[in-house]
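#data-curation
PF: Archiving a pair of folding outputs for the training set. Convention for this channel: one message per protein, sequence first, structure tokens after, nothing in between. First:
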Amino acid sequence: MNNMKRFALQDKRKRNYFEGWYVRILDQAQGLNVALIFAKTHFHKDPHAFLQIFDAVAGTNRYLRFPLASFSFEDGCVRIGEQTLSPEHIHVSEADVSVTLTISNPVELGKKSAMGPLLALPLECYQEVIYMAARVAGSVRLGTKTITIENGQSYMEKTYGRRFPKRWFWLQANRFDEQVAISLAGGKVPTLLFKKFGYFFILHLPQKTLVLATYNFARLKFSEQADGTIWFSLKKGRYKIHMVARQIHPVVLVGPQKHGEMTLDVPESLESTVHLEVYDRHKLIYEGFSEAAGFEWMYKKTDQRSKT
């Protein structure tokens, strides 16, 4: 599966269905930390396209509605009115927001899908990581502030299906040193045939990319601590990964409930932190810390272990 196949429109259903593309834009030196969501919903009572603009520095999220007919996917590009998104560019021109960026040097997954063989199952929600990290350059205007970006950072993924899981977590970070990046997603998926809980974790290191997931029988434990941090521990074969994540200044975004109805409150932070340790046969091979991590914590059970 190449990058464009992961990005491509799925359109699995024409009714009671959602599909969206999520892209982060980050330039910490200039105080820019933004996520954009290009999406559509086919909820039968309120079908429409929309753009969400999440400004983590201002602590705001805007939900801009468009007629469903304004959405199209052509030549590998998402279009909502005049707004366009592809793996190579971002363009937004709406009211007091303007984004014109080129995307380069993406860190991709090669032929692998983040969900592996789970893509073949009748799930309520699917997720693909389009790239773990990339460089962006261009300009961003938010209100009266215009920022010229020469060496910004980015991350891109997409989700689609009938609804978000009933409970889930999501963690993404690429501000470690040495070009290290992570993407973790897990949740309760009622229609998962052989498990009630599924997850994937992607770790990009300079030498290799590791994938630990439900489908390759990796083990995961996580717990919410009294100080508000979330501890994650993963193991597969010779590798062990430990992470401590802290959610900081979450802002409420809008997500899909049953049938793709866009009424779900989703607290998300783009200012979270992650401490990461990677072991190979008990030897610490990487330790690092990332600020500006993306984090959603919608899983309140204090401890969960994936069964293998």
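PF: Second:
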Amino acid sequence: MDYGWLAIVPPLVAIVLAFVTKRVLISLFIGIFSGGLIISGWNPFSGTVYTLDTVVGSITDEWNASLLLFNLLMGSGVAFIWRLGGSEALTAWARKKIKTRKAAGIGAWVLGIVIFFNDYVNAAIVGNVFRDISEEHKISSERLSYILDSTAAPVATFFISDWIAFQIGMVKTGMETAGIDGIQPFTGYLYSIPLNLYCIFAVLLVGMLVITGRDFGPMLKAEHRAVTEGKIVRDGAKPMLDVNYELGEPKDTKPMLITFFLPLIVLVGVTLFGFWFTGRGAGGITDILGASDPAKALLWGAFAMSITGIVMALSTKIMTLSEAMDTFVDGLKLMLLACVILVMAWSLGSITAEMKLDEFIVKAIPPNLPFVFVPMLIFGLGMLISFATGTSWGTMTILTPIAIPLAYALTKDAYLSVAMAGVVFSGAIFGDHCSPISDTTVLASIFSGADHIDHVSTQVPYAITTAIVAVFMYLLWGQFNITPLILIPLGIILLFGLMFWLSKLSRKKYGINPKTKRKIRKKESI
């Protein structure tokens, strides 16, 4: 059935309600129900049944179930790190090494780049390492969640990760659809990297902001609040993760760094082993990644992390068996709300897929479009679909088989057409980066201890600024086929200029020095 413009109603309802009510869970459910109502012919009873069936289907899906269990077990791992004094030990060590807010911000940014092999693990590790450090240096939870979100999915698209295995598969599908021969899918993926401009600029903007301190928009107000009032979250905020409240004080024992690092080392090691084990026998490393089961690998890693916490608690005699089991269960509870939100987000994605939102958007593409506008259009469609559905992988699945054949039909240039995949990946990551119903956006809020809507509202201006620069660069590429060796430096210069200009505008609007976060006098100059 063709639902036409009604296909956009469920995600639109969810997103608008999330911003208006600041209640993500109920907003997502109402969005899902609106879709169920439409699909069921506006019958309230049938719509309710369809909604519940969709939610159940999201939970029982093997991939989703594995990721839900991964999140729950990650919560238990975090609980042991906290109660065994691991976070306290790292904070004590960091106080000696990190002396300034700038150093703390740079540290989180760099670690976010280093943890490249999975966006979920990235958010979990960087958040756990720097949540206490950020509070110590009066960095707002909004700023930390932005750093996490901007170095999770964007970084995972560039390096050896479960992401590139999927992306290589998408490039292969696009090439087959276009009838392009003579280029290996992995080679095509490499050609796409320099045109993944949104991700490149998103990661670099984080560095620019933490180094210069030139914040703008709502983030400037959040940072001003943290610096001048010492409030890491705003009054009335509802952080998605409050470790102090949920888990209480750490055990009264000497904090040891090993209780922080050992569980994380086990997590990383077992996860990497899981990638190899589930994809073994496939050939080279890229083939292994392509054949691996990321959900299983992550689940094994999180399980091993939790078991490590139990073993450490008992072997050091810091906890009794009863206390260790209580900690394990409390950690599961820590992630319960996040898991429910993830289920709602997946269910909304299923509803939009059933209503063929992708086809509705793609049909809006004008026929005989000049190639100069194609990169910008594909990027824009990727942004729209990913923001509405909250899924970057789903967006890549929809657009890559369209973008590569479209470019090839217009140019007959195989390498240029394959590189269009980078444009698709850029647009897809935009939604993954800032949609309130994206799983990685939710996880960034969780592991930074931020209010979810505050995280989204402070991050969106940065994401839009980055997207504007990417659009301009795509226009130049489409018109003149300029090499990325020129496009990227040019985009960096433009991005820095926009950041500086917007910070000056924010200074005038809020009466705050964007660099120092202090209130300014009328005659004070930057």
